Amino acid sequence: MTGPAPLSGRQPKAVRSALAVLEEVVAAGPGVTAKEISAALKLPQATTYRLLNLLVAEEYLVRLPDLKGFELGRRAARLALPVVTTPPTAARAVVDHLRGLVRWGVHLASFRTGQVVLVDPDPDHPPSDGALLARYPQVSALGRLLLAEQPDWHALVREERSFTEHTIPAAGLGAVLEQVTGLGLARQCGELRPDRGCLAVPIRAPGDRSLVAGLAIAGPPHRIAEPNTEIVALLEDHAERLAPLLA
Amino acid sequence: MLRDRSPVHGLERRRLGAPDVLAQSVSGAAPSAAMAATPVIVAASAGGATVWSFVVATVLALLIASCIARFTRRMAAPGGLYPLTAKGLAPGAALACGIALLTGYGLLAAAALAGVASYADALLSRVGATDGRWVPAAVAVLVGGGVAVLALHGVRLAARVVLLVESVAITVLVVVFALLLAGGPIPGPGSGEPAAGPGGVVAGVLPALAAFIGFEIATTLGAEARRPFRTVPRAVGITAAVAGVLYLFAAHVQVVGFADTPGGLAGQSEPVLVLATTRGWSWVPVVLDLGLIMSFFACALATTSALVRVLFSLSRDGVAPAALGRTHRRFHTPHVALAVAVPVVVAALVVPVAAGLPLGGVLVTLLTLATSGFLVAYLLVCVAAPVFLRRIGELTWPAVAASAVIAPILVAALVAFLVSRPVSALVLAGVGVLGVGWWAGLRTRRPAVLAGIGVYDETVAADVAGRRVASDTGGSRVGDATGSGAATDLEGHRDAVGRRTPGRGSGR
């Protein structure tokens, strides 16, 4: 048909070539053209074009606006393991200070990798599994901060899953995220675990206000559902103090 | 160099699944309607070679699909074929393609409404509840309104309706035709179809090719389709193949049905009805009418969606009024373009019918005019394909070969088409004169706008790895801009609210 031949496990050479093409785009940098890739890898031109079109169709690569040059697509970012950097001591001191003021668990997550990565989980109140948070950003307060910041949050929500009876279905998520952006505060009550709720505030770079991290507090869902004006104020205050240390 | 938002922002980007995109293309081609109507038209020219004419036409449609796929694997554009043409040929050719598409989609939408009205009229006439003039006109206005409402309420709703309606219509037609085939030839004195040579095949190709028009409608959903570089070329290719198979089947059934009848299929005027009524199946005409109403309705909806996206795109290019490029805040559809286009489409049908012209004649004229528009657009995009590939340094010999084969055939088809239909030629010439005027006006007053024609859904900063969350390079990438990347007015508003946060935080 008109589509490029699909790759199957029976075509090891094609898989190898496709990976080599990806690698070459990274090595050569943004804007490398099909001809250059073909020459560098000594692949036949028609094969290179077909592989490039396939990788573009799958969104591992994107064509730049001149339609000639290639760059790594958003999906390719998932191929690399997110690099987790331990926050500086000064930042951890701020988080610890907050832990001294409240009785609930306090967690710090980085969004630098485009996923929720817990960089300073509360040792006394262990949070939910980090892999779970990264995989289902829509059910955690921290994940909702990240989603609300996306031009198209659907791209990050890969699979819908109902963890508890309170889990909000994906259809209702748009309104929830609107609210997160409006309030600058994300909340979930018993949506991931029935006995746990969470409040989270964004930490933004002081210069360009881009979202770099999130500060969350986790406690019993019925208490989290309350307005918690004082706790939110504490969270925002500490987030403000963390911003210059993390960005 | 990378923009923060797509130049076609406002549409619902990257949301439509593959079945929805395919359904739009299939409905654009409206194979059910063509299955019933086209074989007899082809037989009038091709005689015994009817089936072969459809084989050739299917190959041609697949070649056109391959030329379109050269672009759609590499770029996604709501303007359909004209932004693609712009990447290969001069801006004037792209504008010509845009005008051809407006003509094609507009008249095809009107023809589809005429089809709905015509078969609804046939149904109503069984109970004597129609006058053949005002009733079908009213049906057309009502259906036009329904199409506008569905097209407004989001591309996904429209696509789902189209998918459902067209699947039912095709199933109905295939079942009816399978029953007719199982019945064998209707009894007659023998002789059947007169033999026809290669000349007959060639003469039959043109009407057979006309049965495919609209199969490229998926290209107008480029910006809205999920994984568009895979979905759109496949949808166009599969539509050409599926429609081809359906047409071959329908032609075969009808040729076999009249194998023992003097004059064969070519001697008939309503072959499917004759095949059914000879066997005493009086339910078939009713079921067929219902199936065809559904198919034409899906076609009207799909072509209207395509038409407004071409208008939207021309507006974003700056060559059409800016208002046409606005999108609805909630539904993310070009609502202003809809409000302008639908009344024109409905009027193209209702005015002649209300003036007393026969509905069937109006339907055929609209289809004929639409076909000439599509042929021009196909020709331009097929010529543009190898030039485009050369420009981006990805030219291969199959691309050249495909265009070298298809372009002369399309030129010949267009010439033959216009020569045999002087009225179409006149109308097309009129549209051409208006188009040249438009082009000349743009060239003298806004040459830069004309030169930049061909807006498409470019890669934006958010599509590229490592730029999703703004990095610490500071001012070069502004966080607020990332936040409004999808760039609907809605999110602009969201942003404004979001900025309150730091103020509130520091106030404590």
UniProtKB/TrEMBL annotation, chain A:
PROSITE patterns in the record: HTH_ICLR, ICLR_ED
Protein name per the record: IclR family transcriptional regulator
Keywords noted in UniProt: DNA-binding, Transcription, Transcription regulation
Entry keyword Transmembrane: no
Domain HTH iclR-type positions: 12-74
Presence of the UniProt keyword DNA-binding in the record: yes
Top-level lineage group: Bacteria
Automatic annotation (TrEMBL), chain B:
Membrane topology: Multi-pass membrane protein
UniProt key word Metal-binding: no
Pfam families: AA_permease (PF00324)
Organism: Pseudonocardia ailaonensis
TM regions (residue ranges): 21-45, 51-72, 93-114, 134-154, 161-181, 201-223, 235-255, 290-312, 333-355, 361-388, 395-417, 423-442
Primary localization class, coarse: membrane
Keywords: Membrane, Transmembrane, Transmembrane helix
InterPro entries documented for this protein: AA-permease/SLC12A_dom, APC_superfamily
Domain Amino acid permease/ SLC12A: 21-419
Protein's UniProt name: APC family permease
Cell location: Membrane
UniProt KW Transmembrane helix keyword: yes
Stretches for region Disordered: 470-508
